[in-house]
Design a protein that fits this description.
Elements lengths: L5 H20 L10 H13 L3 H15 L6 H6 L1 H4 L7 H4 L4 H9 L6 E2 L26 E9 L2 E9 L5 E3 L11 E5 L2 E6 L4 E7 L3 E8 L4 E9 L6
Antiparallel strand pairs: 1-9, 2-3, 2-9, 3-4, 5-6, 6-7, 7-8, 8-9
Helix pairs in contact: 3-7
Amino acid sequence: MKPLSRPAVLGFLLVMSAAAAQAIAGEPTRLDGSSDSAAERSFKQMMDAQEPDAKMQLAMAMLQLNMAGVSSAEEMMADPELRNPSIARVREQVDGMSADEIIALASGSGVQTFIAGQEPGIDPDLLAPLSEGPVEWPLAGTVWLITSDINGHVSESKIQLDTGGRARILEPGAPAGQVNTWQQSADEFLLSLNDEFVVYRGRFDGQSLAGTAGNVNGTVWSWTARQLDRSTVD
């Protein structure tokens, strides 16, 4: 067999390099759990790569894993980290996983994103003053699709955050005259619907909203929200 010429060798190496690059490009983003900041950064990259439906599934999976082992609203509200769940809190558990693997882990864990309250009424911690700090991403004028999973029942609602701290439910037949308000401080967010019949508390990471909600019946659950293009709902 004749030895390959120099140009042939170079061509072969170029082809192999291109194939390797293509293989790497097709590799899904994996969670870097080496530190809190690395986990947050890689999770954001992972979220950015998802389609809207998959993005919601991934966000809900993160919430489910945060709620593992929590059995009551009292326990949830007593832990500040659970009021603002994050991927950093479970980074060691999902280190090296892809989005599909994180979703599968959460769905196979048996963890529900619903917790029955101990007593009727909105938990006071949901209504506690927000942390003080500058607002990096003002949310006034934005529209959001909120997804709640209450004991396996998934519901969605569109909410518009108007200037002046007022909120509007963008649903056909939404009751008129309800008092709906919202607040934002630092990265924390608070939404109150129907004179505090339902309260959503969470944080904004620059792309999506997520946190804990509760109603006057004492039910507490987790929620996520993604921003909608206003032109599609006006």
